[in-house]
Amino acid sequence: MKKHLSPPLFFLKNNKAISNILAVVLLILITLVIGGLFFIFGRTMFSSLSTTASIEILDANLLLDSSGSATLQIIVKNTGNSRITISQVSIGTWNAPWGATLDAGQIVGKSFNPTGAFVSGQKVIVKVSATYDSNTIEKIAQVIVQG
After folding, report:
1. Residue 121 contacts by C-beta under 8 Å, 6 or more apart in sequence?
2. How far is CA 84 from CA 35, 112, 141, in A?
3. Distances (CA, A) of 48 to 39, 78, 80, 89, 140
4. What is this structure's pTM?
5. What would the DSSP string read from start to end of the chain?
6. d(CA 92, CA 116)
7. pLDDT at 1 (0 to 100)
């Protein structure tokens, strides 16, 4: 006598797989998910390739000597991802050309002898200007005159 084996569940008769409407909804959802993944991938890839320029004043000191002459010591970092040229530094109406070219992540320092009536304890604004691709960026720092 032959033993009759029952077929697996997915071979049951009179059961349809899924309806046409459900199949269309699932295909649309899968398409949207895949499209969203491509969008996120493309967005992060192209944002990392975009050019940004920014600078940070790491340190700035304005020192007065006994004769009243001032010395500005300043350190600047290129915190963007493009090459910049630091064009000038200024305090009030005084400004001086700089001309240092920095690649991304580079740091440069320089001393200047600004003219003006500085008083020990006075707060002054130091402004650094830089250029990249015919654009200008500026960063300011408040410095207390020492000496």
Report:
1. 144, 145
2. 37, 20, 19
3. 14, 17, 11, 30, 27
4. 0.66
5. -PPPPPPPGGG-TT--S--HHHHHHHHHHHHHHHHHHHHHHHHHHHHHHS----EEEEEEEEEE-TTS-EEEEEEEEE-SSS-EEEEEEEETTEEEEEEEEE-TT-EEEEEE---S---TT-EEEEEEEEEETTEEEEEEEEEEEE-
6. 9
7. 58
